[in-house]
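Cross-posted from the bioinformatics board.
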Amino acid sequence: MSDLLRSYLTIAIFSGAAIFMAGMMLGIARVLRPRHPNREKLIAYESGVDPVGGEWVQSQVRYYIFAVLFVLFDVEAVFLFPWAVRLETYGGFGLVEMIVFIGILALGLAYAWRKGVLRWS
Amino acid sequence: MIPVLGQVFTAPSIDWWALAPQLILLGAALLILVVSALLAERCPAWFSGVVALVAGAGVFVSGFYLWYDIRDSGPRSIVSGALSLDGFAVLFTLLVAVAVVMTVLVADAYLEREHMDSPEFHALLLLAATGAIVMASASDLIVLFLGLESLSIGLYVMAAMQFRREEAQEAAMKYFILGAFSSAFFLYGIAMVYGSTGSTGLAHARDYLNRLDTAIVDQPWMLMLGFALLLVGLAFKVAAVPFHFWAPDVYQGSPAPVSGFMASAAKAAGFAAMLRIFFVAFGQSRTDWSPVLGVLAVVTLVVGVVMAIIQTDLKRMIAFSSIAHAGYILVGVQAGTSEGTAAALFYLFSYSLMVLGTFAVISLVQWQDGQPLDRFEGLADRRPLIGFALTVFLLGQAGVPLTSGFIAKFLVIKAAVDERTWWLAIAAMVISAAGAYIYLRVIFAIWRRPGAVDEEGGEPVAAPVVPPASGFAILGAMAFTLVVGFVPQFLIEFARDAVPVLLG
């Protein structure tokens, strides 16, 4: 077996272990638990109240824009946290780089704001 | 130097002047977006166009500056080996700059006429151009992918700019879905090359292959699979058969200036990446990839020409002809020699100007209902100069002597002959002769006296208004095509000087 394939062996072992663990726990529970289904128990769980309407609903297209803006800030946070932890090692170069990065993102937000994306009406 | 997680962090030294083309384009795009959004109504309509034009010209000038800089102090690797600054990259920078300037000039009146003038068009154009330049100068596969995506995402949106037209929606959707697929192929190819050579850096991959004299790698099948997947990704971008299915619909559905940009800058960026990956990095394995490219070239030529002959819509016809031209360029690329690469560069430069000019003329005549060939009847009679320019572009694409297209075809076929791939050279020549019919058909149509009368108004068709900016762009492209046809030497030298390609 080549080195490359051997390094995938870890993944194979972990996948096997994960499948075994999950399967074992669910399997034991299935054997031991009592089983008395009724109509109340079988309906979909929706925060404890009876479900309303079907599952095939259309969602507002406006949510899409919020999703995009969310991704914007999410990506920013992904870069910002590790950077903040190690800021002193990156020194002035790191600081300027991050200011430029946040500056460009802020321009994007300013653009979205001026285009009225943030207004809900 | 301070240890970071056990490693030493040193800020990469960045040669900012060498990044000038990318920075100008990026800065101008951000400026357009922010100023137009903040000022809203008070922002003058000409603002974004002028900024884009100045940025394009600035990139052109900085490209020249870098060209002489490289000649004096030699090519070098910049940004810690992520990008290469060499003649090859600068040639494509200049090509992209020309495409940006031409597109802005042609789009000016077009956008106003089609009620789609928005600063976003210019911002996206500049961002796409940034991606194209990054692609041409990348010496790392991941950086190359970054450029590919910047270019593609800009183009997806630009294809959909006329979102009220159904064809535009169809074009953008097809382009987006197929483009996303091809990006996935390309990315998987990067993974395979990384798996077999141990690096995404092209220089590292080349050194690794060169060290093994016999080119036997641990997993040769993995490297081969990597080549194949990278080739699929790039063949999609340059619209080579059998990965061309998006091209006719997208060229037809997109605004004409955008189609011109796709056929010139986007195609050139794809070929730049292809040359850098296959000719430079994997030149050692030439016997593995060259026959594949040869077959791809012949299939592309045959399908492109045959399909172009049966089209009745001019934009669609030029789209198929653009597929056929990708085939000719592949003939130069597959040679795998410096001559072949120089021929491909010459071809890309001269073809880009011809196709930009062709789409510029089409944009004068295009209306909502498409651009069937009979709309162009009598064009030369009413606008002799524009008709003459279109004739020059079409003759050039047909490869008639005294145009740049002839020299370009001659050079790529010569490269194939020098490498003793006779079958390919003969196929390219035969198809070239057959392909002339496509262009002659259009030329006959535009020089015919207009007998056709518009159904509704009774007005004779094809007397388009020629805005000064478009006219200037068309005449510039025509002059280039003719001058290179008469005295090709300077462009040949330029392409030859650009060939010794550096890897970071």
